């Protein structure tokens, strides 16, 4: 059996009991380490599981799926995914390859930012399409997410923005020389994401993510020191949310009274929050 197991958001203890049983029954355990990053290191996982954990980087999962799936028709193999297995990427490739070989696949879910973002007090039913925001470079500033944010905004819906994570980045020189030397990981902060959104808005001028658009920044969701703060995008651009991982929600204009109440509770500045709510937002009761 190939188990694809969600690890939840914060640490080694977020795995479900079912997931833990599967790991303990497995001959080999892989940890997918490219779409997101758990807040604990591999050693803590290994101690907790009592098993060696092999970190599978993008290269490993795609080019070495043979190794991952080896004998999985006879023994159990676990493939661990931070968050929920179907949170952001779907691991379709691995599942299809397993099916081709007649290997049964079982998915064991756990929390992902896609549902944990409910901690902001915004109702999951009122979210539209999720977007990803990548680090802008001098000559690469992709902003196609703007259309999706605008579509959501047009319906009054919230937008969850997943923020870029760069792990195992190589300099062009190291890449060209084929050297497996990697740059330190980089995680996009709420404030950088807000700055980029404001820059895109300045060019597009559709009003979907303007300075006064309300937003909620979240950091380290699911861990003991999670932080949730609400304010305008302009305030987000200046606010330090501390250590990674961060995500950002743009608040839709159709807001339930209870959602607004939690925004106020998390406000960076209550007075400006109330002014914007009163002027730009329609509150449903
Ligand atoms: C492999 O997983 C299956 C399904 O959960 C379980 O029935 C079986 O006992 C496991 N194999 C071992 C060796 O633990
Ligand atoms: C959403 C979800 O299923 N979360 C679970 C992840 O695993 C831990 C540990 O078993 C549970 O407590 C969570 O409820």
TrEMBL record:
Residues bound to S-adenosyl-L-methionine: 9, 84, 87, 112-113, 163, 221, 246
Keywords tagged on the record: Methyltransferase, S-adenosyl-L-methionine, Transferase
Keyword flag Acetylation: no
Enzyme class: transferase
Reactions this protein catalyses: 2-[(3S)-amino-3-carboxypropyl]-L-histidyl-[translation elongation factor 2] + 4 S-adenosyl-L-methionine = diphthine methyl ester-[translation elongation factor 2] + 4 S-adenosyl-L-homocysteine + 3 H(+)
Pfam family membership, one: TP_methylase
SUPFAM superfamilies the record matches: Tetrapyrrole methylase
Pathway: Protein modification; peptidyl-diphthamide biosynthesis
GO terms assigned for molecular function: diphthine methyl ester synthase activity
Keyword Methyltransferase set for record: yes
EC number(s) given by UniProt: 2.1.1.314
GO biological process, one term: protein histidyl modification to diphthamide
Residues of the Tetrapyrrole methylase domain: 1-234
Homology family: Belongs to the diphthine synthase family.
Entry function: S-adenosyl-L-methionine-dependent methyltransferase that catalyzes four methylations of the modified target histidine residue in translation elongation factor 2 (EF-2), to form an intermediate called diphthine methyl ester. The four successive methylation reactions represent the second step of diphthamide biosynthesis.
Name of this protein: diphthine methyl ester synthase
Biological source species: Coemansia biformis
Gene, per the UniProt record: DPH5
């Amino acid at each position: 059996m190939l188990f694809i197991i969600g690890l939840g958001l914060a640490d080694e203890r977020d795995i479900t009991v079912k997931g833990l049983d599967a790991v303990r029954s497995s001959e080999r355990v892989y940890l997918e380490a490219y779409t997101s990053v758990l807040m604990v290191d591999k050693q803590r996982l290994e101690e907790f599981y009592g098993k060696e954990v092999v970190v599978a980087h993008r290269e490993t999962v795609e080019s070495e799926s043979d190794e991952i799936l080896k004998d999985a028709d006879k023994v159990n193999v676990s493939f661990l995914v931070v968050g929920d297995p179907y949170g952001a990427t779907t691991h379709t490739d691995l599942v299809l390859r397993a099916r081709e070989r007649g290997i049964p696949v079982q998915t064991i879910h756990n929390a992902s930012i896609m549902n944990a973002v409910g901690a902001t007090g915004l109702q999951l039913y009122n979210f539209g399409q999720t977007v990803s925001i990548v680090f802008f470079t001098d000559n690469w500033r992709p902003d196609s997410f703007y259309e999706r944010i605008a579509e959501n905004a047009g319906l009054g819906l919230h937008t969850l923005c997943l923020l870029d994570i760069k792990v195992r980045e190589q300099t062009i020189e190291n890449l060209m020389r084929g050297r497996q030397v990697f740059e330190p990981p980089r995680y996009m902060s709420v404030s950088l994401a807000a700055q980029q959104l404001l820059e895109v808005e300045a060019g597009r001028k559709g009003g979907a993510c303007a300075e006064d658009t309300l937003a909620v920044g979240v950091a380290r969701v699911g861990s003991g020191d999670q932080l949730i703060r609400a304010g305008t995008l302009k305030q987000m651009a200046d606010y330090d949310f501390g250590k990674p991982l961060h995500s950002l929600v743009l608040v839709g204009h159709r807001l339930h009274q209870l959602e607004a109440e939690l925004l106020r509770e998390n406000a960076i500045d209550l007075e400006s929050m109330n002014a914007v709510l009163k002027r730009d937002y329609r509150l449903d009761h």
